Amino acid sequence: MSQVWDLPDPFVIELGVAASAIDEYGHANNAEYLRWVERVSWAHSDYLGLDLARYRELDRAMAVHRHELDYLAPAFQGERLQLATWIVGCDGRLTLTRRFQLIRPADGRTLLRARTRFACIELSSGRPRRLPDEYVAIYGGARVAE
User: Is the Cβ–Cβ distance between 43 and 15 less than 8 Å?
Assistant: First the structure.
């Protein structure tokens, strides 16, 4: 079944639902969805050339300010999933916003929609700092209109 993504040109990773993700209700725990959101965020940043090593070199990082996760349907052990992300906001000063969509390709169902707002911090102090020009160019250049 073909995927229907909410926005064009998604960055997509494949996921498998492991036994360790399953909770007492017999489906993937909500915390696992959050781990997947973090995983695709890092994979996309790495793809764009801003990996953890580069963050450390610049003494800057994008720290989560706010997560919004809408759990729409459960995922079960053994299922194959696809998780997409898009950068939908980059104010050029302090913040970056991503959207996410988790799909089960077997039936095309969207299991999760999420949004995360990040704030730029100085790694050495933890204090908010202006986005480096490199972040603005790379993340801003990858921005997709909602």
Answer: no
Nearest of 76, 83, 81 to residue 41 by alpha carbon: 83
| pLDDT tens per residue across span 121-144 | 999 999 999 999 999 999 999 999
Spatial CB neighbours of 45, under 8 Å, sequence gap ≥ 6: 51, 62
Tens of pLDDT, residues 24-54:
999 999 999 999 999 999 999 999 999 999 9
The pTM of the full predicted model, rounded to 2 decimals, is 0.95
Distance CA 116, CA 98 (A): 5
- 3-state SS of 84-126 is EEEEEEECCCCEEEEEEEEEECCCCEEEEEEEEEEEEEECCCC
Contact between 112 and 70 (Cβ < 8 Å):
yes
Partners of residue 71 on adjacent β-strands: 112
Distance CA 31, CA 25 (A): 13
How many residues are given for the chain?
Answer: 146
Side-chain half-sphere exposure of 9, counting CA atoms within 13 A: 8
